[in-house]
Amino acid sequence: MDEEQLLDQIAQIVSQLEQSGVDLPIELVQQLSQIFSEAASVPVQASPQPQTPIGAELLWVLANGDRSAFLSYLKTIDDPELNALLQDSGRLNSLVENLSRNVPIQKKLTRDGIPPAPLQSSNVYGFLYDDKDRRLFVRFNSGAVYSYDGVSPAAFNAFTKFSTPAKTTGSNEFGRWWRGKSGSVGAAFYEHIRKGPYEYQRVA
Q: How far apart are CA 24 and CA 14, in angstroms?
């Protein structure tokens, strides 16, 4: 029996006693009144929502809201908390349902859940960064997607200034570049991310 049911039962007993003409001691009436007042002032607590593991929302966006792709990323990413979801179907289903409801996906603007870079690049299609878990996903024009762990906001901001000039000259099906070209996404990526001390792995 929970607290609410217990209070209801006490109220019914008191009512029945009063109706039968029993003279209740004033101290008992005051004590019961205090109990009911305190119970009425306690706010009803909502059921706690399961906490979303750090990185799960980013992977959901990366998967473009697709459950199968999301599960594939969970298997690929080297993160114990995210990997543990695969062993708990109830928690996993609850998380997917929550992400489906609360994390908007703009599928037409992304590939593999990654938006295009603000500048056209012959090497990098686009990237997605979450400063909460400091993980950067980069999609290359080849279609490969890599994750880079431990990328600080400062390093990410330095990368996205695209101020590193290109150091070579060439062209491919995605564009042309030349030595000294400013606004090079590929050169900035190599300078600030690829040369950095970040662990990385291919995830797609």
A: 9
